[in-house]
Design brief:
With about 160 residues, the chain is mainly α. The protein has two domains: about 80 residues; about 60 residues. It is rod-shaped.
């Protein structure tokens, strides 16, 4: 525990703007990073199935990502400095793109829409195949009817010579 505290103080002292700086976004990002790395160490070395700690880990990552995003839009130089010093990777969302947090209701709507689209597509393809099969029989019947008309016309002597256009 003393080692963790020493690491935290060391990293925070590198990031701080002045000795009394405890509440700037850079310091908070550094503190979150230390906690994330310690949790990660716990997952890899001690207990990888620690569910409550995984929830805490995700919360810490989300908070740090929010601070990084805000810092990116406020001051790019400080953002680059913090990223480089802490050795973390962060992908900044594109401007104007709205990222919606998945919700149960929203996911149900999305899944229902996907299911309906897939069902509609399947039924359309089935109907298309059925129409193709019917078309084949219809063309056969059409040929038979044309031959029958030609035979009847020949028999009755009413056959007109084909006119070419």
């Amino acid at each position: 525990d003393q080692v963790v505290e020493f690491q935290r103080r060391k990293i925070v002292s590198l990031i701080q703007r002045h000795p009394l700086d405890d509440n700037s976004p850079e310091v908070k990002i550094a503190q979150y990073t230390v906690r994330i790395r310690n949790n990660l160490h716990r997952f890899t070395k001690i207990d990888k199935y620690d569910a409550p700690r995984k929830i805490v880990q995700e919360t810490l990552k989300n908070r740090r990502a929010k601070l990084l995003k805000d810092l990116f839009y406020q001051d790019r130089d400080r953002y680059d400095y913090v990223i480089k010093l802490l050795g973390i990777t962060h992908e900044v969302p594109k401007m104007g793109v709205k990222y919606l947090k998945p919700t149960r209701k929203g996911e149900l709507r999305r899944l229902t829409a996907e299911y309906c689209d897939r069902l509609k597509e399947e039924r359309l393809t089935e109907y298309h195949e059925e129409l193709k099969r019917k078309q084949e029989t219809l063309t056969e019947e059409e040929e038979k009817i044309k031959q029958l008309i030609a035979q009847e016309s020949k028999y009755l002597g009413t056959q007109n010579p084909p006119t070419e256009k």
